[in-house]
């Protein structure tokens, strides 16, 4: 690990206000990058100014306030707004390596907030050295879709168009959006207090199983992913963990929590939470999953949520009159939300 300013030269951007610039869609226009987290940081295309030198291309733009540490690779030269720095690599880097650094820089966002910018500290961030980055999977190692027939690619688009043209939004919501209980519940109806995870759950580790050792079957394999309820495939090995539990990643997509209804195998990037003293159910589990995801935002590539740290982690929960976690309230709250009537 090295300080960021040992890997990049940190330079403050040109600091232009968009309201004083001319919006321009012509080929000669230039990107205007602001502190937004969308569209690669580009807020508009504007006319060039004769006396203003743009930030150079093939650099990384980083927001120092606002959406702090939103980092994007900028291929072309660009203007920038307030509190934008650009990072120029000290050693030669290709585009994919710089995109990887953008992700790593974003992983440090938990250290900052609306009132705590990175103006003075961005250069002090510790990030992997270039030699470490070279061992990471490359983003350009993507599957080749050039040989997939067009009718397969068009099928999803055509289905989406059909749904937009034929499904009545009001009818859809009337049929599916009902809550499980017709009662409004506010999270402010209860006092909240902190509890250690190991007082609430038995936390068990997953186990490494390489692709080469996996066989075909029906056992869900839970990996370090943020999608598909954590399921990255199905294997022939017997399940390691019981259903009616919560899977929680501590590496990769850190803090992704999912309710697992059926028995499964968890990879070595995943811990499994067994609730103590009460039987878990889908509604209660969903409440816990959201709390755990919020806690997971405090962790990153450089600050993994390992088992020891996870056991000592405290989460804040609504409490009953005895000062204990109010599980009934948590369950009822989820049941009061729209679409909860579809939960088993």
Structure notes:
The structure is a single chain. The protein is an alpha+beta fold and 344 residues long. The protein folds into two domains: 2-133, Adenine-n6-DNA-methyltransferase TaqI, Chain A, domain 2; 178-342, Alpha-Beta Complex (Adenine-n6-DNA-methyltransferase TaqI, Chain A, domain 2). Helix content is 22%, strand content 22%. It has eight helices and 18 strands. The strands form six sheets. Strands 2-8-5-6 form a four-stranded antiparallel beta sheet, with helices on one face. The protein has a four-stranded antiparallel beta sheet with strand order 11-17-14-15. Helix 6 (282-296) crosses helix 8 (327-335). It is globular and about 70 Å long. The mean pLDDT is 89.
The H-level CATH homologous superfamily of the largest domain, spelled out, is: DNA methylase specificity domains
Percent strand equals 15-25%
Low-confidence stretches are: none
Q: What is the global morphology?
A: globular
Instruction: Please list the strands of the largest sheet in the order they lie side by side.
Output: 2-8-5-6
Run of helices and strands: EEEEEEEEHEHHHEHEEEEEEEHHEH
What average pLDDT do the residues reach?
A: 89
Give the name of the CATH architecture of the largest domain: Alpha-Beta Complex
Kindly report how far apart the N and C termini lie: 47 Å
Helix content: 10-25%
GO molecular function: DNA binding
Family: Belongs to the type-I restriction system S methylase family.
Keywords: DNA-binding, Restriction system
Protein name: Type I restriction modification DNA specificity domain-containing protein
């Amino acid at each position: 690990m090295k300080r960021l300013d040992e890997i990049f030269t940190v330079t403050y951007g040109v600091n232009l206000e968009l309201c004083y610039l001319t919006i321009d869609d012509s080929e000669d226009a230039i990107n205007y990058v602001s502190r937004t987290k969308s569209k690669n940081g580009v807020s508009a295309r504007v006319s060039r100014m004769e006396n203003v030198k743009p930030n150079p291309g093939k650099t990384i733009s980083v927001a120092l306030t606002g959406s702090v540490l939103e980092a994007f690779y900028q291929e072309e030269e660009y203007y920038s707004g307030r509190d934008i720095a650009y990072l120029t690599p000290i050693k030669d880097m290709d585009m994919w390596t710089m995109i990887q650094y953008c992700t790593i820089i974003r992983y440090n966002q938990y250290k900052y907030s609306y009132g705590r910018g990175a103006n003075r500290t961005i250069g002090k961030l510790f990030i992997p050295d270039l030699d470490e980055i070279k061992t990471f999977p490359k983003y350009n190692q993507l599957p080749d879709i050039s040989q997939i027939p067009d009718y397969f690619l068009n099928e999803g688009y055509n289905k989406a168009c059909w749904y937009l043209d034929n499904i009545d939004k009001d009818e859809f919501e009337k049929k599916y959006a009902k809550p499980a209980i017709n009662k409004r519940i506010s999270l402010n109806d209860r006092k909240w207090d902190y509890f250690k995870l190991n007082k609430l759950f038995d936390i068990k580790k997953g186990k490494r199983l390489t692709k080469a050792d996996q066989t075909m079957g029906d056992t869900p394999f839970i990996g370090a992913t943020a999608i598909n309820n954590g399921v990255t495939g199905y294997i022939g090995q017997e399940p390691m963990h019981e259903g009616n539990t919560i899977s929680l990643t501590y590496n990769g997509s850190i803090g992704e929590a999912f309710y697992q209804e059926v028995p499964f195998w968890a990879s070595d990037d995943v811990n499994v939470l067994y609730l103590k003293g009460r039987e878990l159910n889908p509604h209660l589990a969903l409440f816990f999953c959201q709390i755990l995801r919020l806690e997971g935002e405090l962790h990153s590539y450089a600050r993994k949520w390992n088992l020891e740290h996870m056991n000592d982690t405290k989460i804040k929960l609504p409490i009953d009159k005895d000062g204990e976690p109010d599980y009934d309230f948590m369950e009822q709250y989820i049941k009061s939300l729209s679409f909860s009537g579809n939960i088993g």
